[in-house]
Specification:
The protein has 27 helices and 20 strands. The protein is α+β, with helices and mostly antiparallel strands and 803 residues long. The strands form 5 sheets. An 8-stranded mixed beta sheet has the order 13-7-6-10-11-12-1-18, sandwiched between helices. Strands 14-20-19-17-15-16 form a 6-stranded mixed beta sheet, with helices on both faces. The longest helix is centred in the N-terminal third of the chain and has 32 residues.
Length: 803
């Protein structure tokens, strides 16, 4: 989602500490360290690997094999063809009375070796099968004979009882694309937005790059791909995120919203109690690997590595580079309310605290009348400061307030009990949603701990939201957790008739621990400056959220089109109408088909998309002509999306080539130009991954309204969207108020008009209502007014399946 801003803003700082070294030494050392980090991660997962590394076999299969060998031996058969006798000869001679024991040990060792060889063979076979991507490139709804054969073989070689990390050892590594193909695709992607003169110059730079530097840089990437788990992901995390010196707020973080039309309870402490309990239940399932791995087509697994750092994780600032600190466990959460910090334990001697007990603890914090200490109220603004500034202040803070800092950074996650209400209102639906988004993305600049993996925000009227730090994982991971949280706290845990958590308080629980910060005088000025900078950033962000309810995913499917491609082409049309020109468009997609894969960029502004947009603006074009051009644009977008998912994208390869060139001190004008480009339109779809948790037909209001992120460029837009059920698409638009070229509300109107205009090209879309001005405020107000402001257990489903 928000990585587009970081991707265009990074400037790697690669030095050799002033020493004179061979040009190749730094990159070889970095490749070696990448591999070393990969192997260390494998070793740290030893217990998980023991539990899941036997997949798709099982420990019971070893017992069966051992028993079969013992039975054969009893029947005077030797399935080992003499190997067990040789193993017995190598064992110590403990005397005649232990002769039978030596035979049992020899059989056990032979069974273990045979079992290990079987597992290794199954892993290799499954990895080879999962390297096939022909199924991804086939037209939707069509399945060739090779793909059918592949599916059958995957079923054969896959185990039945899978755990979250079961497939990790069987996932293929991300391939390094051909550098010639990457450069060709890049030139194709920029052709629609460059003049003839600029494109000719870029082509010359590209040819010079291919002739002089490409083969050497490519060789180093190939070497890294053989040695490390992924040739790009660790560098992506380090140079795009951890080495960035910008503020995390707006520039890097993203937010996720609550239900749009429903608030299960207006009691703030109760909502916090259920939500925190649900999040900790998710962590419990995560630790026990009871969360099922995500499977495409119900068969192709995605990498699960990013799940490891959801909880107990903090980004620690450094002078030149941050690092991610992850703890194995944490039994408390850090809570912020009215400028004060608290430590709230999440467990008792009998286990995880009940939702009602957690509600009691949060209510005690809300009722605590003690004021914030001087400067403490605005302390968290330091986490929104430039990273080098925060790193310097934190070194002083660690000495003067080590216990309080450790309580926050070592928490499972951060909770902010906001003093203001949020969410959709009857009085001003559109403005209230915009304010809700802005509160989640930036808040007041000092009421979120932006370093934590995520902050749970609970507003005074019971509305929820998340603010997520981006470096540790991408949106689908936190989205998966958020879907579980909303479904569990509302449908499974529920609320009593008076809006409180079910159950009874526990008066024996100790009071939440107030954290006191001994802040030296010298950092007071730093806090004030950080707060001023955070307020400037927060005040400059222009957020706009609107549900488009004229049609949704079901209509697009009836047109036999990809819903994502449909929206992306509408966005191209809307942006052209907004700015009068085409621009580089960043659409994020995942590469988790590969081990430790993260994201890739789909460059959605294609020649085919531009031809379609021009046809829509040309009154002489007929609808059949426009429809034909639209289908060509959709097909092109689909081919780019599938190529990116299968490791044949453009931008991550160019990024990795650029990093190697910096290590080698080889200046490439072509790569410099590539990484100086600005993404004026950054887009992302929020996936709905666990449809079974929500009954969208009987309870259509109980679906998440998605989330958003800041713009990638000072004069650009950030646009995310989510398909809510079958008939609504919710858009989240951001831009900067300081720009005279952008306006989030104006683009929102263009998006609505573009969607309706595109839909009118199809017979079913011609029955839709014509363009309507504004942002459907009347519809929103009617929808909001038709429901109670707060819906408790009586409106929620009494149960849900597949938990």
């Amino acid at each position: 989602m928000a990585e587009a801003h970081q991707a265009v803003g990074f400037r790697p700082s690669l030095t050799s500490d002033g020493a004179e070294v061979e040009l190749s030494a730094p990159v070889l050392q970095e490749i070696y360290l990448s591999g070393l980090r990969s192997w260390k991660r494998h070793l740290s997962r030893f217990w998980n690997d023991f539990l899941t590394g036997v997949f798709p076999a099982s420990p019971l299969s070893w017992l069966f094999l051992f028993s079969a060998i013992q039975l054969a031996w009893f029947l005077q058969l030797d399935p080992s063809l003499g190997l067990m006798e040789k193993i017995k000869e190598l064992l110590p001679d403990w005397g005649g009375q232990h002769h039978r024991l030596r035979g049992v040990l020899a059989a056990a060792l032979f069974a273990s070796c045979l079992w290990g060889a079987l597992i290794f063979t199954l892993h290799v076979a499954l990895r080879l099968l999962l390297s096939y991507h022909g199924w991804l490139l086939e037209p939707h709804g069509a399945m060739s004979s090779p793909t059918k054969t592949w599916l059958a073989l995957v079923r054969i070689f896959s185990g039945r009882k899978t755990m979250l990390f079961s497939y990790q050892r069987s996932l293929p590594r991300q391939p390094v694309p051909s550098v010639q193909d990457t450069v060709r695709k890049y030139l194709e992607s920029v052709r629609p937005i460059l003049s003839d003169e600029d494109f000719d110059w870029t082509s010359v730079l590209a040819q010079e790059f291919l002739r002089l530097q490409a083969s050497l840089l490519q060789w180093y990437l190939q070497l890294k791909s053989w040695w490390a788990s992924n040739y790009v992901s660790d560098w992506w995390e380090e140079f795009v995120y951890l080495r960035s010196r910008h503020s995390l707020m707006v520039n890097s973080n993203y937010y996720m919203m609550d239900f749009l039309y429903v608030t299960p309870t207006p009691v703030q402490a109760a909502r916090a109690g259920n939500a925190v309990h649900a999040l900790l239940l998710y962590r419990h399932r995560l630790n026990r690997q009871e969360i099922l791995p995500t499977l495409l087509m119900g068969m192709r697994p995605l990498c699960s590595a990013q799940y490891e750092k959801i909880f107990n994780t903090t980004r620690i600032p450094g002078i030149q580079k941050d690092h991610i600190r992850h703890l194995r466990d944490s039994r408390h959460v850090a809570v912020f309310h009215r400028g004060r910090f608290f430590r709230v334990g999440t467990h008792s001697q009998s286990g995880l605290l009940s939702p009602r007990a957690l509600e009691q603890q949060f209510q005690r914090i809300l009722d605590d009348p003690s004021p914030a200490c001087p400067q403490e109220e605005h302390l968290a603004a330091l986490t929104a400061a430039p990273r080098d500034v925060w790193a310097q202040v934190r070194s002083s803070l660690k000495v003067q307030a080590e216990d309080a800092l450790e309580a926050v950074e070592g928490a499972a996650f951060f909770v902010s009990l906001d003093s203001e209400p949020a969410g959709l209102t009857r009085e001003d639906p559109a403005a209230s949603l915009d304010a809700y988004a802005r509160a989640l993305l930036a808040g007041r600049g000092h009421d979120r701990w932006f370093d934590k993996s995520f902050t749970l925000i609970v507003f005074s009227n019971g509305k929820l939201g998340l603010s997520v730090e981006h470096s540790w994982a991408d949106c689908p991971i936190s989205g998966h957790m958020w879907e579980f949280t909303l479904a569990t706290e509302c449908f499974q845990l529920g609320y009593s008739a008076d809006g409180h958590c079910k159950g009874h308080p526990d008066p024996s629980l100790p009071q939440p621990q107030r954290l006191y910060w001994h802040l030296p005088e010298k950092i007071h000025l730093s806090i004030s400056l950080a707060l001023r900078g955070a307020k400037t950033l927060s005040g400059n962000i222009d957020c706009h959220v609107f549900p488009f309810s004229h049609f949704g995913k079901s209509f697009i499917k009836r047109c036999h089109l990809s819903s994502d491609s449909f929206v992306q082409m509408a966005l191209q049309l809307a942006h052209f109408r907004d700015r009068g020109q085409f621009c580089l468009t960043y659409e994020s997609t995942m590469t988790r088909l590969f081990l430790e894969g993260r994201t890739e960029t789909v460059r959605s502004c294609t020649r085919e998309a531009c031809n379609f947009v021009r046809a829509m603006e040309d009154k002489e074009k007929t609808e059949p002509q426009r429809r034909a051009l639209f289908r060509l644009a959709v097909e092109k977008h689909q081919s780019l999306l599938k190529a990116a998912m299968s490791g044949q994208g453009v931008d991550r390869h160019l990024f990795a080539l650029y990093i190697v060139s910096q290590f080698l001190h080889l200046r490439s004008p072509f790569l410099d130009q590539v990484h100086s480009e600005q993404w004026q339109l950054a887009t992302s779809q929020i996936p709905v991954q666990q449809i079974h948790l929500f009954d969208v037909h009987n309870y259509p209001d109980y679906v998440s309204s998605g989330g958003g992120f800041g713009p990638a460029d000072d004069h650009g837009y950030g646009v995310s969207y989510i398909f809510m059920g079958d008939d609504t698409i919710t858009f989240h638009i951001s831009s900067k108020k300081s720009s005279t070229k952008t306006d989030s509300h104006r683009l929102g109107q263009h998006i609505e008009d573009a969607l309706l205009d595109v839909a009118s090209l199809f017979q079913e879309g011609q029955r839709l209502k014509p363009r309507c001005g504004g942002l459907q405020e009347e519809d929103l107000g009617h929808r909001c007014g038709s429901l109670p402001c707060h819906t408790r257990g009586s409106r929620a489903p009494t149960k849900s399946t597949n938990f």
